[in-house]
Design brief:
nine-stranded mixed sheet; alpha/beta; two-stranded antiparallel sheet
Amino acid sequence: MSSKPVFILGGYQTDFAVKYCREGRSVTDLLADTAAGALDACGVDAERIEAAHVGNFVSELYCGQSHLGGVLAEAVPGLRGLPISRHEAACASGSMAALGAMTAIEAGRQDLVLVTGVEYMRNVDGRTGANHLAAAAWVGNEGQAAEYAWPWMFNQVLEEYDRRYGIDYRHLAEIARINFGNARRNPNAQTRGWQMDETSFAEDDQANPRVEGRLRRSDCAQITDGGAGIVLASEAGARAWAKEHDTNLESIPRILGWGHRTARISYAGKISDSCDQERMFPHVEETIRDAFRRAAVSGVEGIDGIETHDCFTISEYMAIDHFGITPPGQSWQAIEEGTVAFGGRLPVNPSGGLIGLGHPVGATGVRMLLDASKQVTGRAGEYQVPGAKRFATLNIGGSTTTTACFVVGR
């Protein structure tokens, strides 16, 4: 268990279908909207916040803008003069921002902390964006021959799964179908209005073209402008907030447990290290176990749903067996049996995930925590998992180089 509880008072997600760049709006506007939305959702004035954390991966490359802590202070006058930090760990940047805030709360340094995650990504063409995102790999040492670095890298994951256990593309297609279907229920999902049919998920080079190797368009997460923000509180801060809002402490979701591990950056090195292991990425399994142990959860059977990192369908396929939903290499069982579908025994990505909802890289970890907090308080609307009491998140950066897992409950 964590030494001191950390509560999630609430938060906000921008509409991931909105193209900030095409509206002539900047990353400063995105930060302003995200922070103001989170504060308004919680009924907390900016002047009461004691610190803030920003998760972001590559604003320098997409926008030419670094020093996002100062940008946040520029965007929200009430935050000026506070300690504000920016955190980067590729696609896990948002989770690192949350962990940074939690550390200060658990140390007793602050009672109310704003956590934001943003990424501004739709202002460049696809090839340029792919080159920017390749900075999360081992630059100069892997993926140099790829047209699109990350589809190429995760196709290597697919091929390694196939080599070790065997894999049927139909199961990846079903993951995509589930997540796009879930996104239709989410009013903030980038793809909620997309028109798709069975050919959209088929091995059809016209309707669903290959991107790299065996990965096709439907297997890939969406490039997204977007932000997510939450307000975290200590027990004292949460008690005071509960009194002001005529509620009780027990009704406020809290982070029950967390896990965070960082592996070597090279994909080939990670695969070599796990050659005699049951699972391809043992450090991912250990991260999940760390979170479960801290949350006093005996295993995945104590979880009611999961928001996981489906940057590609194969990354969700990997998460299924690394969570222990199935034995190693048998994630297909949970897909065929409907376990991970909306309405299944353990729904995965009821929000639509990165594939259906969208993937503003630095925001994803924060967005997952926000959705987990909604689920355990019955506020997820049309994508609510009935009776959810504990929700887990799994956020990865790079080729599982940085891995973070949280358990949220009441």
